[in-house]
Write a structure and sequence with these properties.
It is found in: Membrane. This protein is an all-alpha fold. It contains 13 helices and two strands; from the N terminus they run H-H-H-H-H-H-H-H-E-E-H-H-H-H-H.
């Protein structure tokens, strides 16, 4: 099997696999962090829900292009909207992950003033900010991108914005900056946890229960941060390579083109893992998260059984009344 065949198969089965695994996981994440009271007590729940929403959007953007019959890039309006939402979705998902990493650092800090930054009120205020910020940053895509019939795809209509997007927005704002933020707050959070373990502070039972859940949230977020860093690195390297070799693309051989296409598909699949893996990372890294899921499912089943029992009792009572009336008639 040639490299081109491998890249072609990966371009189809990669998005299909990520979509099949990631969409259910992201939906379950959103339902759990909204539906379970213990989860809602943590400010990070807002960021997890926001990330889940944009993870779904990112997986859809990766999945839909495998259907050539869909007119995603065949007109000026659909072309601009598709490119705009593609450029907004991925940074938004990464922004919520960065906010969660910041929240874990603030939550584990020994400084009371810094711990105040980890609150549900602040999380509510910050919740719409990633979408608003990245919509403003990427608004020029709605103006300076258009459908080019000769290329059968979207391309820039403004040379200046093309250079800004190629050399600054995509490599720095989308890949390098989130990576730096995740690494910094991941290290700081790990340092805070090590300091906390050496502290012996008396706390009441309720505080201990909350602390245990916050510790589990911190553990989950650190695990997700590590996976995200691993997933972002290949994309960042690929983007830097593309920028460095931009002026020499016309001199590439066929084998180089195929190899770069294969590497591009691999890096796309790896970054897609970042959007599809949150629920599975939480499930594997936190025993309390697994226990909460089991308890939540039991409650749902019990409520359903109770409703069925009530309906059966009501139906039986109606039958009894009907039979009694028939006897009198």
């Amino acid at each position: 099997m040639s490299m081109l065949d491998i890249a072609t198969k990966l371009s189809f089965w990669g998005p299909v696999t990520l979509f099949a695994l990631g969409i259910p996981g992201a939906l379950i994440n959103g339902i759990l962090f909204i539906g379970i009271k213990t989860f809602r007590q943590s400010p990070s729940s807002y960021y997890v829900v926001g990330q889940s929403l944009f993870d779904i959007a990112a997986l859809l953007i990766l999945f839909l292009p495998i259907f050539p019959s869909l007119p995603l890039m065949s007109s000026k309006i659909s072309c601009r909207l598709m490119v705009f939402f593609s450029e907004v979705t991925v940074p938004c998902a990464m922004s919520f992950l960065c906010l969660a990493a910041f929240d874990r650092w603030a939550c584990t800090s020994r400084s009371a003033r810094i711990r105040q930054l980890s609150s549900k009120n602040i999380a509510r205020c910050l919740f719409p900010m990633p979408f608003l910020f990245w919509s403003c940053v990427n608004a020029p895509y709605l103006i300076f991108v258009d459908y080019v019939p000769q290329l059968s795809s979207c391309w820039f209509t403004n040379d200046l914005f093309q250079q800004i997007a190629t050399y600054f927005l995509t490599p720095f704002m989308v890949a390098l900056l989130p990576l730096i933020i995740l690494v910094i707050f991941g290290i700081l959070t790990h340092r805070n946890i090590r300091l906390i373990k050496h502290m012996h502070i008396q706390q009441n039972q309720a505080r201990n229960r909350l602390s245990q859940w916050e510790q589990q949230m911190t553990r989950m977020m650190i695990a997700q941060t590590c996976i995200s860093i691993i997933c972002i690195l290949p994309q960042l390297i690929g983007l830097l390579y593309s920028v460095a070799t931009l002026n020499t693309r016309a001199m590439r051989s066929y084998d180089q083109v195929v190899l770069e296409y294969l590497i591009g598909q691999i890096t796309t699949f790896i970054i897609g893992i970042n959007f599809a893996s949150s629920f599975y990372i939480f499930f594997l890294s936190s025993p309390r998260f697994r226990k909460s899921i089991k308890t939540y499912l039991k409650q749902l089943i019990q409520v359903r059984d109770n409703r069925i029992g009530i309906m059966d009792a009501s139906f039986t009572a109606q039958n009894a009344v009907t039979q009694h009336q028939d006897k009198h008639h």
